[in-house]
Amino acid sequence: MSGLRHASLGLLLLVGCGESGGERSLAVAHTVGFGTEMGEVDGRAITIGVDLDGQDTVERGSACFQEDYVAPDGRTGIDNSFASIFSLVEGVFQEGTVEGIIQGTINNGRLLLLFEVEGVDDWQNDPDVEVSVFLGDGRPVVGPDDRLVPNQTFDERLEVPRNRVSGRITDGVLETEAFDTTLPLTFFNVFFDLRLFNTQIRATVNELGEWEGVLAGGMPKEDLLDVSMQADAMQGIQVTPLVLTFLPGWTDLAFDEATGECNQISAVLSFRTTRAFLFDDAPPEGPAEEATESL
Amino acid sequence: MVALGCDGTIGESTAPIDTPAAAEYVPEAARLRRLTQEQYLISVEDALRPLIGDAELRLPSSLEPDRRAEGLVAIGATEGSVSPRGVEQYEDASYLLAEQLVAVWPDCGPASGEEPVVDNTCASESLRPLGRTLFRRPLTGQELRAAVRLSAQAAETLGDFRAGLAYGVASLLQSPSFLFRTESGEAVGEGRSLTRWELVTRLSFFLWNRPPTTELLDAASRGDLNNEAQYAALVDSMLGDERAIGGVRAVFSDMLELDKLDDLRKDRGTFVHMSPEVGPAAREETLRLVTWLYENDSDYRTIFTTRTTFIDRTLASIYGVAAPAREGFAMHEHAPDSQRAGILGHVSSLALHSHVAASSATLRGIFVRRNLLCGEIPPPPPDVDTSIPEPQPGALTLRDRVRRHLEEPSCASCHRQMDPLGLGLENFDALGRFRTLDNGARIDASGNVDGEVFRTPAEFGDVLAESETTLECAARTFFRVAHGRHEGAGEALVIEQLVDAFRQGDYSIRGLMRAVVVHPSFRTLPAEGQP
Amino acid sequence: MTRSRFLKRRPLSRRTMLRGLGLGGGAVAIGLPVLDAMTNESGTAFADGSIFPQRYVQFVWGNGVLPWFWTPAEEGADYAMTEQLAPLANVREHMSVVTGFDVRVPGRSPHESAVAGMLSGSQPIVEGENVGWAAPSLDQVLAAELGGSTRFRSLQTSIVSNGGSRSVLATGETLPSETSAAALFERLFGEGFRLPGETFEPDPTLRLRRSVLDTVAIEQQRLRQRLGAEDRLRVEQHLTNVRELERRIARLEEDPPNFEACMRPAMPREVLPDSRGRDDLDGLNGVFADLLIMALACDQTRIVGHVFSPAVRETVYPIEGIDLQGVVRGHHDLTHNEPLDDGSGRGEMWRTNEIVKYIMASLGRFVQGFAEFGEGEGSLLDNTVILGTTDASNPRLHSLDDFPILLFGRAGGRLNTGFHYRSSGDNAARVNLTIARAMGVPLPSFGTEDAFATDSVGALEA
Fold first, then answer.
1. Does residue A279 belong to the interface with chain B, where contact is any CB pair within 8 Å?
2. pTM, entire model
3. pLDDT of residue A61
């Protein structure tokens, strides 16, 4: 089925309209990072992200206290608890290390984060578009700027289900409804599934596949512990004790009335993309994962 | 003034073919032709492969470079000699190959360490057929004796029959009779013709770009090539053979200068897609297209108009389309309304005739004028400032910036031969990516081919396909590659007849190749005493 | 910035070497001269009284200079270095800046006419892209006279794959360049090369290879009889080159010349392009200089035709900040399309100027390698002439007048250095004649037609 869907992809892009009406565009993230703290304005810290819980938490007394951020464009209520954790991680490693590791993961084909928008009638304002987020597979070509070169063709990692969600474009900015997603990632040589609940995408988009934005959601706190323990084991470091100490202060989503605690940490992945394509037939025999793992 | 060279005639090659003087056919002499690098490698592979079976054959990596003269490598091969460095390279190559060969060949003769080390019968029986393959004719008694004597001398010195035989083999591989193709001919009646061996060699290199097989040599030996019907049948079977792809690739590679793509240089800061793979991939695209057209017996003119092409992942990313295959090349169909049509939309044409980061209407114009229309353009005269003004408001696009080329009479006499062509490809940047804007201003890619107007790159291809000059140029180019020289004034009639045959064959590439080799001029040389 | 790795050391004296080896150095193969004394007391002559051989190196770069940044205002020894000459300050004492000479051939073929005129005193014969010259280049004139006693009559090198060659035979044919340092190393110092005094084990295959070549030569003679006049010349040239190779092999069978400074150099390092695909020209220049210096020091050849960069082919120099209109440009493109004055106050065509300065800095380091390489009591440069020139004076106009000419080295004391000499429009072929005569080749004239010269330039001669 997906083979058929992709068969006409190249043509559709050129002709500019699909069978469901509207244009379709596929993009691959050439840069992925974690939203970090970017300074302060009027005493409020700035970071990228979206308002996941629908409230601008500024005071104690909220169910899960974690002061919300302000976005660079002035939007309030930005949930990004992970921004403060990330500062800690950066402290353990050298600055830029995480960035470099993520870039390496993208460039060797283990993190090909694909975004597809379908049914676009107007790339500036369209109240009804369909968005998918999924993972690609392939051997990417990297340019002299250490980024994936545009217009590459990949396979879809069919063993990882697509996340489909509807969205709207307002003044060139795409926002999606919330969805739950699992992204199988490899960081620090650790394979893990990054689960994000109530995830939203917010990004500037265009027909050239040059998008820039965030993917924000709630990460279960046990996942964070799991990652930190694996990282400790792999890297010979001692992050977990720190995480355990600070965890109660970091959780800010999924309030559990029974325990009075929050179970998730808001986290924001930033991304920038370039246009990509999918091969118009099914990937070759054999699980794609093995192919990448053998690299 | 040199600049005036563009007025009126456009060089001897396009002399009008219907003048009374041209009606008389005067053949021209042929020159000694050195094997191109590719022909050398194919020749040794063809000669050695059947003898060594599945064993690995390491081919030499550096040989005397090819040169291009009067627009073609096929003509460059008839000029120049072998340089001191080239003699060394051919010598090195001969021992590299000979040593691999004697490791598994021949079946006769004493084994290593076995006495006596000299076996002239075995050496002779081995070198005779090898020599025939390499020299593309039987060895003379003198030649065979010399090679056998060398083998024996070396065997005695080295105490090993096979090690000695390597020197005999090496002498054949360094011989001028292998490295060069002679086309001296022999007297036939009052005139002069290629010998049967020269003819079968010219035929084989033109149709296949490889030396004649044993079967072809046998046919030549029997005299089949002197019988019109047998010759025609042989030509048809050769054109139907898959090896004909080699000939088609060679003629188009030469015509479109695709050999230069090995050295394609672009600024990677401007073009992130640039890599050492781009040039060779671009060549392969164009060659796959002409191969496909040949195999389908398609109309030659399609090369200017078709939306079908063959690309790999690298080219797909430059063209901004989905790659048709994970590995290697596969067919791709550009959208019907795409401006990328025919070879003028290939990276091979667009990137080769551009600067490292900026496109060039002049370079592209020269390419179309010279290579596709067989026109001549003299170089710019000395002491002329050829700078192109900076983009500025009102003159942002290249078209506006080179306007002076067509307004000042001294520039215009030549530039009107190239700019109206080259500007028609401005929708493609210096790597060949499609664009609609240049410095933010909308590109006007209209132009004309000697008065025939087009508005877009795709229409440019249509105009070329409809042009008589294009067809005549194809006939001239095929003739030049086959003969290793430009057609002479006394051969205008030949070109005219080739064009006629081309037309009657519905412009099939195969038909044109056939016409060139069945035309009597293919084997005719000037009679003794003629210039 | 990558620094080139030139050979900086002066070779140890024999005595020092013996001391350094101590007593147990039997296993260490060192190039120990076999003769008792190689040079006389003054170090300027062989034991037999002959002086060190004279060498000639042609260093050609592409796309000219900018005359307004090039020509010094003052003449004589006390001239002030101009902006483009300043990068040559390190070799100023070894250099003659020669200006004001005109290349007297018709400028029919941009870039080609000037370099043909400068190096051969004749005009190019252009047929399509194939270029021959009507007369041989100076290096080949000298090779014909001086190249016979060395293994290689001359060497052609270019540091870039598309550099081409400016060495043209009397037949009009251009000799191809070696563009791979590894291949050049292999050719010079690979199989068959022996250091002076190195144990000699006769190699029977050398004689066999000569027999094969002899057979080939006989065949060539048979073949030439069946050919027309032009083809006959081509086969004769091939025959000459086959005989050349025979001679080269014969040289390998003899004891190598006893040159104290000769050592087997290290395998050249690989010089990679930068991330934007630009060649590290200066790095390549250094690698080639090392090999060429040792080729001359080991008397493998005495004549070198070296191309630093090609004309026209768009070489992109690894210099930051010289983009034009936000676009990277090749050197040739810039010479034509850079605005004369872009209002930046950096001078006319300052981008092109930066490239010329880069080339001159590379030339400076090239020459410095020769100057620092000891030979006898002096340096290799003392017994060498290096001619530095190009294919246009003002490349924008492809002009042939007031041509850029640099001479380095003293040719065994026959040439003066360390000054600026300015002619008032004299024939540039006189400079070639001067070089040839300084090299001990008493040519009666150099150049053809308008470029015909019979007088050398006295001011350059010591």
1. yes
2. 0.84
3. 56
Question: In this predicted model, what pLDDT tens digit does every residue of B351-388 receive, in sequence order?
Answer: 999 988 889 999 999 999 999 999 988 777 666 666 67
In whole angstroms, what is the distance from residue C445 CA to residue C456 CA?
9
According to DSSP, the β-strands at B308-311 and B33-34 are: unpaired
Query: Which runs of consecutive H residues, i.e. helices, occur in C112-180?
Result: 112-120, 138-146
Chain B contact set for A148 (CB, 8 A): none
Least confident stretch, A158-172, A191-205, A234-248, C37-51: C37-51
Nearest residue to B163 via CA among B102, B90, B76: B102
Q: What angle do CA C424, C428, C431 make, to 5 degrees?
A: 105
Give the C-alpha separation, C350 to C83, whole Å.
11
Predicted local distance difference test score (pLDDT) of residue B6: 55
CB C441 within 8 A of CB C449: no
- Per-residue pLDDT, C167: 94
**Does residue C25 register a pLDDT over 50?**
no
Residue B344 has pLDDT above 50, yes or no: yes
Those residues with Cβ within 8 angstroms of residue B262's Cβ, 6 or more apart along the chain or in another chain:
B279, B280, B283
Tell me, yes or no, if C277 comes closer than 8 A to chain A by beta carbon: yes
Model pLDDT, residue B386: 67
- DSSP label at residue B71: T
Tally DSSP H helices, then E strands, for chain B: 23, 11
**Coil vs helix vs strand at A70:** strand
Residue A150 touches chain B, beta carbons under 8 Å: yes
- State which amino acid sits at residue C145: E
Chains contacting C with at least 3 CB pairs below 8 Å?
Answer: A, B
Tell me the CA distances in angstroms from C28 to A39, C20, C22, C31, one per residue in order: 66, 11, 11, 10
Cis previous bond, B116, omega within 30: yes
Q: Which residue pairs from C253-258 have beta carbons closer than 8 angstroms and sit at least 24 positions apart in sequence?
A: C253/C202, C253/C203, C253/C206, C253/C207, C255/C34, C255/C196, C255/C200, C256/C194, C256/C195, C256/C196, C256/C198, C256/C298, C256/C299, C257/C196, C257/C298, C257/C299, C258/C33, C258/C34, C258/C35, C258/C38, C258/C196, C258/C197
Q: Is the pLDDT of residue C65 over 80?
A: yes
Please give, rounded to a whole number of angstroms, the shortest distance from the CA of B129 to a CA of chain C: 19
Above 70 in pLDDT, residue C30?
no
Q: Which of A219, A207, A205, A174 lies closest to A272 in space, CA to CA?
A: A205
pLDDT at C276 over 90: no
Cβ neighbours of C325 (radius 10 Å): 15
Q: Is residue B63 a contact partner of residue B82, using CB atoms and an 8 Å limit? A: no
On whether the CB atoms of residues C163 and C309 are closer than 8 A, the answer is yes
What's the pLDDT score for residue A123? 93
C320 close contact with A: CB closer than 8 A: no
CA distance C110 to C108: 6
ipTM of the complex: 0.88
pLDDT in tens, B160-171: 999 999 999 999
How sure is the predictor about A252, in pLDDT bands with cuts at 50, 70 and 90? confident
Which CB contacts under 8 angstroms, 24+ apart, belong to B200-206?
Answer: B200/B136, B200/B225, B201/B136, B201/B137, B202/B482, B202/B522, B202/B523, B203/B235, B203/B238, B203/B517, B203/B522, B204/B136, B204/B238, B205/B39, B205/B181, B205/B247, B206/B247, B206/B251, B206/B481, B206/B482, B206/B513, B206/B516, B206/B517
Cα B209 from Cα B481, distance rounded (Å): 11
- Look at residue A5 in the predicted model and tell me its pLDDT: 39
- Among A173, A205, A200, A212, smallest CA distance to A267 is for A200
Chains that touch B (3 or more CB pairs under 8 A): A, C
Q: Calculate the average pLDDT of chain C.
A: 84
Share of chain B above pLDDT 90, in %: 76
